[in-house]
Amino acid sequence: MNFKKSQQLYKKGLTHMVGAVNSPVRAFASVGGNPLFIKKAKGSQITDVDNNKYIDFVLSYGPMILGHRHNKVQKAIRKAIKNGYTFGASTENEIKLAEIVCNAFPGMDKVRFVSSGTEAVLSAIRLARAFTGHDKLIKFAGCYHGHSDALLVAAGSGLATLSIPGSKGVPNDAVKNTLIAEYNNLESVKEQIKTHKDIAAIIIEPIGGNMGVVLPQNNFLKDLQTLAKENGILLICDEVMTGFRSKFGGAQELLGVTADITCLGKVVGGGFPVGAYGARNEIMEMISPLGPMYQAGTLSGNPIAMASGIATLRELKRQNPYDIFEKVGERLKATMLKAAAENNIDLVVNRFGSMINPFFTKEAVTDFKSAQTSDTKKFGIFFWEMIRNGVFLPPSQFESWFLSSALSEEDIVKTEKTIYAGMKKVASIR
Ligand SMILES: *Cc1c(COP(=O)(O)O)cnc(C)c1O
């Protein structure tokens, strides 16, 4: 396998692009080496510009849950594109996607479409503040909620890997209302509530995905919902990653909780830029044109993106792949643990539904702090061995791998073999 063209493009890209990427996790900074440039993808496979083929567990960081270019999605996009690209006026497909989304999430009577997860979350925060009249938020260390100022505090993945505390350029004033609690630690939330009376919302990834996969333990989410309710605080579930992925109704369906406000992204657009936030009527009626909270978007509800979202969600519902994801995920977890044990490597694997994540550590990973005990060097070695054997993984210890329903038995067997090769390589370099 050679990466000659990728290397050439990378060098060329550096001239007019920052680090030759438009999003920092794509830069391979935490695994070393240069990023791959991709030519195309179909089904479970992705192909780089040097014509190397990989089984894709990145799936554009989640959206491509059906695999790439599913026939039905492709057809819907082609049809939509014939009618125009964007109109600055409502279309019937927006109503159709809104109906699918609201039916999947019982806490949502109404939804507003935007163009990214970041936008969905920052709008949801504004909405919680508008509705409660309070300014403060509680967020959890290691949770990532997009790159808006107020939420770039103790945020996972890209930032976790690079160990950057927040970000330069975010004024202190922008984060002074952001209170931090620890994931899976209800007491840490109670303490914040005790000291601060004016809290608008608690925002959480109901299944942590941006510090690596971290599961809510016991009744953490349910307890959080109760605690929020008792204190007149809104619970915002950021399901940008988990929505339609953990279950069709997201982590909320899986865990039996209902958020006051739900944020969506990734899968909801099936590969096109769509984000969404929604809630019950009394909350959503705060938003312009019904209410005093302003939020807008030139390309919001874009017709091509709506067509892609509708086709993706309809097909996803028809396939109902969640039991299969569970089985495949469990199988890959068992393989990783076995391969690690045979090579005397400390490994913890966290998984839930179609999100899975090996941590090179011996500590149980339950929050940001324990995730940080992982040996990122070992992950880097493992990552490159997987790449060289045709398995495309997120280039970071702290990013979830995603499963698509396009994975074949052959793909899984090949991935398992490659996992053994990867662990062997890690052991050989120690
Ligand atoms: C990806 C992600 C976001 C940000 O979405 P973008 O579309 O990248 O802006 C927000 N929250 C969570 C939980 C995410 O996984």
What does it look like?
The protein has 430 residues and is of the alpha/beta class. The protein has 2 domains: 171 residues, Alpha-Beta Complex (Aspartate Aminotransferase, domain 1), CATH 3.90.1150.10; 249 residues, Aspartate Aminotransferase, domain 2 (3-Layer(aba) Sandwich), CATH 3.40.640.10. Helix content is 40%, strand content 14%. It contains 15 helices and 14 strands. The strands form 3 sheets. The chain has a 7-stranded mixed sheet, sandwiched between helices. It has a 4-stranded mixed sheet with strand order 1-2-3-13. β1 and β2 form a beta hairpin. α2 runs antiparallel to α11 and α12 packs parallel to α15. The longest helix is centred in the last third of the chain and has 21 residues. About 1% of the residues have low confidence. Bound molecules: pyridoxal-5'-phosphate (PLP). The site of pyridoxal-5'-phosphate (PLP) has 15 residues, from α4.
